[in-house]
Amino acid sequence: MASVLELSDVSVVRDGTAILDSVSWAVEPDQRWVVLGPNGAGKTTLLQIASANMHPTSGTATVLENTLGRVDVFELRTRIGFASTALARRIPAAETVLDAVLTAAYSVTGRWNEDYEDIDVRRAQRVLAEWKLDHLADRPFGRLSDGEQKRVQIARSVMTDPEILLLDEPAASLDLGAREELVQLLGGYASAAEAPAIVMVTHHVEEIPTGFTHALLLADGRVTAQGPVDEVITAERLGETFGLELVVGKDDGRFTARAA
Ligand SMILES: Nc1ncnc2c1ncn2[C@@H]1O[C@H](COP(=O)(O)OP(=O)(O)OP(=O)(O)O)[C@@H](O)[C@H]1O
Hints:
Residues 5-245 form the ABC transporter domain. This protein is of the alpha/beta class.
């Protein structure tokens, strides 16, 4: 089966600095990746490439078998699910939770005069139930808790049944209860055979859901390690990437890390 994402020697240069530097990486359909690295390492830039929102300065990026720079990215983006706080800011506060998810079918935020089919509405309702949001379907998006808003972002990004799902810090700013609820839901989703390939950026190994198979570590725009999650999320590899001595543990499928 073809890779859903393939970067070959990809660099992104801004203001004379390589914010991604010779990155080569492939994501297969049955893989779920976590991307970790210090602030400014280039994680969000990597997702911008993977979501076809940015082209490499040099090298080749192929997303769902389309080489960026040679294809109509508007059609391609409909096959990619992307959840980030920046995108969520575009959802009007008064929009109901159901509409915030439903409007993904037309790639818009803010319901206007689009004609939705019953099948779209039923799918939105099913997605809301999957992400434990069905009881909030009629609530305005702006009146949800942070944890609920994060789940709406993800529900919206899976509404169109994407072939690759990109999550930029889905658990950032959540309290312990909301984080654990989200990590568990993500773990269940990631473990399902029919789930798409997933790439999740996070700052904390505690946020890696069970069912995630691979990890990529970035520092200063360069890949410092990549491969099966248990080979990469280690004290040695993380320590090199973050530049400090760490103790890394794993319990019941979940990782922990602290300074040594
Ligand atoms: N358009 C741009 N022009 C110049 N520099 C940029 C641009 N976009 C990003 N950068 C710089 O590139 C580096 C990587 O940014 P990026 O947002 O990808 O990192 P990150 O790993 O996601 O960081 P964080 O963990 O803090 O969110 C940062 O130093 C950032 O300031």
